[in-house]
Amino acid sequence: MLYLLFSQLCYRTHVRPIALYGGEKPYRQVLELQRGCHLAVATPGRLLDFLDQRLLSLSFC
């Protein structure tokens, strides 16, 4: 739901949001991360999972 709100707010801007959440295989989400993003909306579990696997970094936050 938050991702939908951010997608609408980012419409016609150069800001690219992505959604990271559990309940499905992370393959598509990893591909989205590799394409790059400016804003990641994530559930706590998926965020920790991607941080542990070093697929995501919070160094620029």
Give the tally of structural domains: 1
Distance between the termini: 22 Å
Low-confidence stretches: none
Rg calculated over all Cα atoms: 11 Å
Query: What form results from the Cα inertia axes?
Result: globular
* Cross-sheet strand order for the largest sheet: 1-2
Total of helices: 3
- Work out the number of β strands: 2
Overall pLDDT score: 90
Strand content: 5-15%
What structural category characterises the helix and strand content? alpha+beta
Helix content: 40-55%
- What kind of sheet is the major sheet? 2 strands, parallel
Order of helices and strands: HEHEH
Protein name: Helicase ATP-binding domain-containing protein
Textual characterization of the structure:
The chain is of the alpha+beta class and 61 residues long. The chain has one domain (2-52). Helix content is 44%, strand content 13%. The chain contains 3 helices and 2 strands. A two-stranded parallel ribbon has the order 1-2. The longest helix has 9 residues, at 2-10. The chain is globular, with a radius of gyration of 11 Å. It starts with a helix and ends in a 9-residue tail after the last helix. This is Helicase ATP-binding domain-containing protein.
